[in-house]
Amino acid sequence: TTAMTQLSMAASQRSSQLHALKRFLWSKHISEGLTLKIQRSAKHALARQRCNISESSIEVLSSISEPLRTELHFEEHYPVLSVHPFLRMYQEQVPTTIKRLCHEAIQRHQFSSGDVVFSEGEAPSAPRMFFISSGRLHYHRSNVRHANTSVKNTNWVSEPALWTVWSYRGTLQAATECALISLDANKFATIANKIPVKSLCVYARIFCEDLSITLESELSDVAFESATFLDMIRSAFPEKRRHRLSTIVIPTVTRTSIRTSVTSIVQAKSSAASERRVSSAMVPRSSKDSEDADLWKPGWRTSYEFSDSDLGSLGEEHVTVQETKNLSQSVAGFLRASMIHF
Hints:
Layout: H1 2-27, H2 32-51, H3 66-81, H4 85-93, H5 95-104, E1 106-111, E2 116-118, E3 128-134, E4 137-140, E5 149-151, E6 155-157, H6 160-163, E7 171-174, E8 178-184, H7 185-192, H8 198-212, E9 222-224, H9 227-236, H10 264-270, H11 289-294, H12 308-312, H13 331-338
Antiparallel strand pairs: 1-8, 2-7, 3-6, 3-8, 4-5, 4-7, 6-9
Helix pairs in contact: 1-2, 3-5, 4-5, 5-7, 7-13, 8-9
């Protein structure tokens, strides 16, 4: 009897909410077409609430310990993040960092069919990378042939925002009811720097090098696991000769230069044949506290040179703060701020 009463009260509450919405739209003289869209979206949202209970509605969760909530968010979000091959390998190397990312840097998003997630040419004020939890989206680039793409949970979107200053190359629109999660680029930078690892620097370097020589017409916000990404993973994790999700064997890229400059990436963009010499450890030899803050300013540019000893300090898999006193900036933040704008 108690259960039936609760169900009846919940149904009555949903009906009251929809009725109040209808009266609000009528009082504001909203057009019939838009009214129908809003009402349909509201019904879908209420249906989702019945199936997917939001964390904020469970008051007792705020009372459990922080470590337990971190574990909860990891198990909730990591299966979605693991579509990306780098994050899978990164989780094996530094599981603590991935757990913190799931706990602190993830945001949930709900979109109705027809909703625009982002538009072509838009420069996000809060850069983030998107993953699809459920549903299907449509990605389109204007003035580019064969630029229409169906986006689903095997794709990830806007990864360059993690590594460089990025503006969207196309428009992403929900084709069905969709649930997305996003990884905040600035929080990613802060958290990743707590346990700096060389593989992160190597992957980011290779990713930006590849991005810098890609033709403008071929740039896209949407990506998926491909031979190119597997190549990047093998270069960032040379000790993993055979990735457990692929039987493709790809040679490890060797480092051809010890002393180099970050700004050489700009030269690579102008000429694909020019030598790209970017250090696998994006750590300046020296820095001041006042300079650290500038790393986060869009348009910040400088050139650092690296000595053998600088790179040697990153020889271990985990780089301690004591071993690299100059690693006061965020590795990912440094990359995003210092790379060329795309």
